[in-house]
């Protein structure tokens, strides 16, 4: 295996390690959410750059396992919902 392939394998292994935890999935999901990864339009060059970086991460996940993208987005959405539910419970009292 050449150096480039070894480096790519190591990066994939690093992502797998990070995404083996719910915290890792939430962090990556938060990056996707906050970068506007799924939004069609971009407000400025800055936000386009942020979105492009999220696309690099998403494309790396696609190489490993395309389902990881959805798992990260779901983990972050569930995280946000847990706080919304907690806030709604607090205001109901």
Describe the structure.
This protein has 93 residues and is mainly alpha-helical. The chain is 82% helix and 0% strand. It is built from 4 helices and no strands. It has helices at 3-18, 22-35, 45-64, 67-92. α2 packs across α4. The longest helix has 26 residues, at 67-92. The model has no long low-confidence stretch (mean pLDDT 90).
Q: How would you sum up the global shape? A: flat
The biggest beta sheet is recorded as: none
As an assembly, this protein is single chain
Give the rounded overall mean pLDDT.
Answer: 90
* Number of DSSP-assigned strands: 0
Round the Cα radius of gyration to an integer and report it.
Answer: 16 Å
Helix percent reads: over 70%
Strand % is: under 5%
Q: Summarize the helix and strand pattern as letters.
A: HHHH
| Cα end-to-end separation | 62 Å
**Which structural category do the helix and sheet elements fall into?**
mainly alpha
Regions with little confidence, pLDDT below 50 for 5+ residues: none
